[in-house]
Design brief:
Keywords: Transferase. This protein has 142 residues and is of the alpha+beta class. The protein has a single domain, classed as Gcn5-related N-acetyltransferase (GNAT) (Aminopeptidase, 3-Layer(aba) Sandwich). It is built from 4 helices and 8 strands, in the order βααβββαβαβββ. It is globular, with a radius of gyration of 14 Å. Bound molecules: coenzyme A. Coenzyme A binds next to strand 4, helix 3, strand 5 and helix 4.
């Protein structure tokens, strides 16, 4: 069974970092010092499991502008296109919904734009590069 949850323990945090490392550092080649950043300390983290194995992750942080920023959403390659990304996004958005914040923003890697559009995010910026990867800003009101 697959389930997604908010990170509550150090082990769950390390599980989320494991998935992020597998996807962003090993698969995509993003340098580890950029993958882990200053926001990890204060962000709320999420992890998904299949048979006690961590398979997906993501994080949410709130800004001073009353915006929730969704970042580091990732699913291990073997588990993609099985609606686990959607499960993770629903878990993040449920958490955001529990706050007063209704505006959600994210920077989508361009290949992932259809994934976010399926969840009603709209593009709000031209393409830009970060660590050599093309992104476009997207947002949604929940
Ligand atoms: C983007 C990512 C999180 C999607 O996770 P996933 O579990 O494969 O996505 P889901 O199965 O929940 O997809 C839901 C829908 O989004 C769309 N979608 C997902 N991946 C897609 C892709 N690569 N191309 C086109 N549409 C896609 C499809 O409409 C899909 O529904 P369908 O499979 O019924 O057609 C995953 O591909 C991933 O981890 N990629 C590497 C890390 C990354 O780029 N993260 C995003 C950073 S902004």
């Amino acid at each position: 069974m697959v389930f997604a949850k908010i990170v509550e323990t150090e082990k769950e945090l390390q599980d989320a970092f494991f998935v992020r490392r597998e996807v962003f550092v090993k698969e995509q080649g993003i340098p580890q010092p950029l993958e882990i950043d200053e926001y990890d300390e204060s962000a709320t983290h999420f992890v998904a499991y299949f048979d006690n194995r961590p398979i997906a992750a993501g994080r949410v942080r709130f800004t001073d502008e009353l915006v929730a920023v969704v970042e580091r959403v990732c699913v291990l390659p073997d588990f993609r296109r099985k609606q686990i990304g959607i499960l993770m996004m629903n878990c993040l958005e449920d958490f955001i919904h529990g706050s007063e914040i209704r505006k959600v923003k994210l920077n989508a890697q361009t290949h992932a734009i259809p994934f976010y559009e399926k969840q009603n995010y709209i593009i709000t910026s031209p393409e830009f590069l970060d660590a050599g990867i093309p992104y476009r800003a997207m947002e949604k009101t929940i």
